[in-house]
Amino acid sequence: MKAIEVENVKKHFGNVEALKGVTFSAQQGEVVAFLGPNGAGKTTTISIMLGMRAPSSGTVKVFGMNPRIPKARARLGAMLQESDLPATLKVKEAVELFRRLYPRSLPFQQIMDMADLTEIADRLCGNLSGGQRRRLSFALSVCGNPDVLFLDEPTVAMDVQSRAAFWDSVRKFKSEGKTIILTTHHLEEADALSDRVLVIDHGKVIVEGTPRAIKEQVGGTRIRFHGQVQEQQLQNLPGVTRVNINGVNEVYTRAPEAALREILQHDITDLEVSKASLEEAFLNITARN
Ligand SMILES: Nc1ncnc2c1ncn2[C@@H]1O[C@H](COP(=O)(O)OP(=O)(O)OP(=O)(O)O)[C@@H](O)[C@H]1O
């Protein structure tokens, strides 16, 4: 069964057309990453899927239901970008409080372990660091053992170790058949974790596919070298999708062999050829758009 179905959703805020017809669906057990530059429409899409905002037009279903009805909401968990925590509660008290809100909540210790909170269980929420606050937000988002978990830029402010531990917990959650919808600006995380990526820009889904397929289709091959070559000559190379000249010449191309043959006609040094990363593919897509 489809966990989430979004059909031609549009959203206006006054004159701002934040979403211009977004369509997508997620299966149970799937991890889908939303990528896109600031202001692209990722958070708006998430808030509509959560039933926090109504779409201006189009439909959203969670397990076949309107996300605003309590039966649907009980199956959703969310870790949003800004979430206020009760400053004078201890971490363990906040977790206990949230557990009581749900009919089939996870065991207390399991939540504390998932979010790596045991060591700071007695701290006041108001005294937590940025990364610790994010970990507590994660704990609160999984308290109700949701079937769909929304993570909006979850690793902002987390240090490298917290981030790695966090993604391990998310992987475990996925292995229990949960659906995860996430947004992140760390594209290597989206690449490592997600089954499917949607690139959103200007309120529309512009590319959709597995990270691997997107890298192959859009990223192509990166060729770097030193040497005096005019930018226009680089732009005219076969299959070029993007050119950077910043100390070193950098060309992204879908026809690497043909482009290389032409580049080697010039007097160049320090040649490097590699497959583009998801981040590079993303930059190519949004630059074109
Ligand atoms: N409540 C609101 N009132 C007016 N405009 C809004 C409102 N919420 C969002 N917008 C606008 O809608 C567009 C999409 O915003 P949204 O927050 O969904 O982007 P985003 O992709 O999540 O960006 P970021 O990566 O910065 O979080 C932006 O132009 C934003 O300014």
Strand content: 25-35%
DSSP E strands, number:
13
CATH H level of the largest domain: which superfamily? P-loop containing nucleotide triphosphate hydrolases
Order of SSEs, N→C?
EEEHEHEHHHEHEHEEHEHEEHEH
CATH topology of the largest domain: Rossmann fold
- What is the makeup of the main sheet? 6 strands, mixed
Mean pLDDT: 90
Overall shape:
globular
Bound compounds, each kind once, are: adenosine-5'-triphosphate
Q: Which CATH-level-2 architecture of the largest domain?
A: 3-Layer(aba) Sandwich
Number of helices: 11
Order of adjacent strands in the largest pleated sheet: 5-6-7-3-8-9
Which structural class fits the helix and strand makeup? Answer: alpha/beta
Separation of the first and last Cα atoms: 33 Å
Tell me the count of domains. Answer: 2
Pfam family, one: DrrA1-3_C
GO molecular function: ATP binding
Organism: Deinococcus roseus
Protein name: ABC transporter ATP-binding protein
